[in-house]
Amino acid sequence: MGLAGLLACLCLPARAADPKPDATIENASIEASVYLDDKIKADSTLAADCLAEGKKWIDKNAAEAATDRKQEPDLFKERGGYSFERKYSVRSVVDGRYVSVLRDDFMNTLGAHPNSDVNTILWDTTEKKRISIRPFFTETADNGPTLTAMRKAVIAALNAEKKRRGAGESGTAEWYKELRPTLLKIGAVTLAPSTEAGKSSGLTFHYPPYAVGPYAEGQYVIFVPWETLKPYLTPEGAKIFAGARPKGDADDQQ
Prior knowledge:
alpha+beta, 8 helices, 9 strands, globular
C-alpha cells in the first residue's frame, strides 16, 4: 500500500461498536437482551428499576422457551431458538423531574413473523418511583370526563393518521373497542416534548401492531395537544404543559 493509501486508511473514522447489552442470556432455546440508553444510565435509581424489570422479562421468556423446546425439539433444531430484545430509552424530561421512558420489545418465537410491542414508564425523579399521569389531572376516574375527553381526542387523531397513511378502512369501532376511558386501557402514554424548554406539549399514546390496526400498519404514535385537556388540568398539570410539539417529533416517533 502506498503512502497516500495508508494515510487514507488512518483517516477513516472507526466503526462504532455495537452497544453491549445490560443484561443477556443465550442458549439453545433463546437469545434475549436488554439495553438501557445513556440517559437512563445517568440516573442510577431509574436504571436499576428498568434493569430489574428487564431481567425478570428475560427470565420469564427463557423459561417459556425452554418448555417450548422440550415440546417441539425439531422446530428449534431446524430454525434455532427464540429471539427477544428490549430497549429502554428516554422520550422526554419535563420540569427537570418527570422522565418519560419508551420500552420497545422485539420478539421472534418462530411464528409466521416476528412481532413487536411498546410500553411506557413515567418516572418521578423527586419521588424516585414510577407514577401515572394522575397528578396532572383533577380526576381520572374510569369513564369520567377527563378520560372520556382523552379517548375522544385519541380516536380523532387515530382516524386522521390512518387517513394520512391510506389505512382508513381499519378506522372502525371494532379496532378501537379495546381503547377504553380508563388509565389502564387508553394506551401507553408519554409526555411529549415541547418547543418551550422544560415543558410538555401534550400526551403521546403509543400503540404496537395489532392494538388499533392490522399488523401491516405497524405502530401508531398519537399526539393529543395539552390545550385539548386544559379544562381538566391540576395546578401541577398547568405548570408542566405549555408550548407546541416540536417540528419533526412526529416523524421521529413513527
